[in-house]
Amino acid sequence: MSPLPxxxxxxxxxxVAARAGVSQSTxxxxxxxxxxxxxxxxxxxxxxxxxxxxxxxxxVLAQGLVRRRSYALGVLIPxxxxxxxxxxxxxxxxxxAKEGYAVFLCETGETGAEQHVEALKxxxxxxxxxxxxGVSGLTPESLSGMNVVLVDETHEDYxxxxxxxxxxxxxxxxxxxxxxxxxxxxxxxAIDASAFRLRERGYTRTLSAAGCAVASAALRRGGATxxxxxxxxxxxxxxxxxxxxxxxxxxxxxxxxxxxxAMARVAVPGDVSIVxxxxxxxxxxxxPELTTVAIPARxxxxxxxxxxxxxxxxxxxxxxARATRPLPVRLVTRGTSARAPEAx
Amino acid sequence: MSPLPxxxxxxxxxxVAARAGVSQSTxxxxxxxxxxxxxxxxxxxxxxxxxxxxxxxxxVLAQGLVRRRSYALGVLIPxxxxxxxxxxxxxxxxxxAKEGYAVFLCETGETGAEQHVEALKxxxxxxxxxxxxGVSGLTPESLSGMNVVLVDETHEDYxxxxxxxxxxxxxxxxxxxxxxxxxxxxxxxAIDASAFRLRERGYTRTLSAAGCAVASAALRRGGATxxxxxxxxxxxxxxxxxxxxxxxxxxxxxxxxxxxxAMARVAVPGDVSIVxxxxxxxxxxxxPELTTVAIPARxxxxxxxxxxxxxxxxxxxxxxARATRPLPVRLVTRGTSARAPEAx
DNA sequence: TTGTAAGCGTTATCAG
DNA sequence: CTGATAACGCTTACAA
Lengths: 344, 344
Prior knowledge:
The structure is a homodimer.
Chain A: H1 13-20, H2 24-31, H3 41-54, H4 60-67, E1 72-77, H5 83-98, E2 102-107, H6 113-121, E3 127-131, E4 148-151, E5 160-161, H7 165-178, E6 184-188, H8 195-209, E7 219-221, H9 226-237, E8 245-248, H10 251-263, E9 273-278, E10 291-294, H11 297-313, E11 330-332
Parallel strand pairs in A: 1-2, 1-3, 3-4, 4-5, 6-7, 6-8, 8-9, 9-10
Antiparallel strand pairs in A: 10-11
Helix pairs in contact in A: 1-2, 1-3, 5-11, 7-8, 9-10
The structure holds a DNA duplex.
């Protein structure tokens, strides 16, 4: 193995041309060129064979240079350790790969999306999928001229693929209401325009409509992480009266909340019911299994990729691909929710 | 006084040159050129300022074309839904980004690594990190001329970054032995040359040395997934005598095994002890918490990236970066392991 | 129908 | 020190 794939290794369109006894541009024509190019069948097959024999693969960088597209997409997420994001990425990667696009993965953390976008720009990226990176936190010009699709976030300037986040909150609320709960709480982050916020809204509104406001002290803000959930739940457990029903903005925080209960020897669902959101695989691994609202994460990613690619392919002035209708969510009733305990 | 940015869209080195009143090649020299290039301080700063004002970003595709490097890495993993792989990717992406490399994420599934590698090749990828994709399953020439670094897999042709997998198995075995267990089992996949296999070996050898062979019926083969773990454990529970100690090749399967026990109302760790491997975040979320052997996943990814990049940068004939010493692993004793139940 | 040639945006080698 | 100029591998008018 020489450190750098020296030279001599890579076979170019020129090599193919030489072997087929045609010019390089002819090779280009038959291999990647317009279908409307009319080549002699004989020439075409000679080229094809030569290419085959030599194992020719067009250099995408060079193609990109002249076509001004890189056939690469960027996917930006805050944190790959959240299985939900992993699923989104996975879904996006799969359809991208099938369509001949490669995906650059960028983990932005809480901040730092900006730099990643810059880096992608200088790679002539064809478009980006942003999930939960907070578009409004970016300087407007950083995304200018880019093809972008948002996931589970809405912004007037960009199309987005979303789940029915408000419905998710509503489903959670209705479920808990039906179980007879009267004292509610919520744990989740305070990011505007995010799905988290909509979940919260659907939840609180449904509760209000049923005459059950959630006290502001019962509204715990924090990261949508395990740690955030634990913290939030600890605070809730100290409240009097103690909430008997808690909806968490995502499964990770719900799992954290569940854990906090276990550590505090608070029975779930005996003393308090917990409902998460996402339905990640782990939700079924804990005991009791987590009641949650399923969000089609892979599908979100897949659609985002499709939408983005369509936007790219849509030569000229096709309708600039507006946001699609929200993907349906559904309540998955498992073991962490039960009838409210009798009032003390 | 100076020309304005040409077409609103992309600003090139030519635009900068025009504005700075120098030639394009000079721009190239000061911006990306050798540090040893000796430019007039005055010229340099003029160029720098012009570039700054225009917001110039060199086109990496073009750079790649001539330099024959793309400054991009590929990371191939079978499945992003396994948090362990997600962590590896995350670690690799972080150091790659810091070093100015972008990473193409490729999820290969059980098979299909080949095509992804081909796709990456035509993108002039600088190198790839392969984690658990089974190098030996690839046609040799598909990786020829590529810079590759393996993660947790050993192969004589490529350098690899590994954890001390055999030690992981040994630690699990010693732990269970110390707890007085005598009837052992193992759940894991049958992939040669993988860390899984080494974990198994470390486990079985340590047991043998202690006079406790693991019966072949107690050796369950299957995917290193939740489903695989559940299946394996179900089979084990039917065995007579029933094993009291089970080591699983990874946490996902351990979690599956734990779940299977819960469903079968078998007490963990009362009736059977379970030890996993990886120490993914979820391990602490289940009840009881999973005893496991911690593998530094992020660190593996990070090191792989560093090693790969060093290999790339190592112009000329630096020692071709052999495999590094195994990263240490450590036993994390939690709630799924306890003293063996009294013999019936 | 196929070849010639002009780029795409950079880097790199030389002259001046 | 700086500026032509030739690649890099490919696409695409435009000629032949």
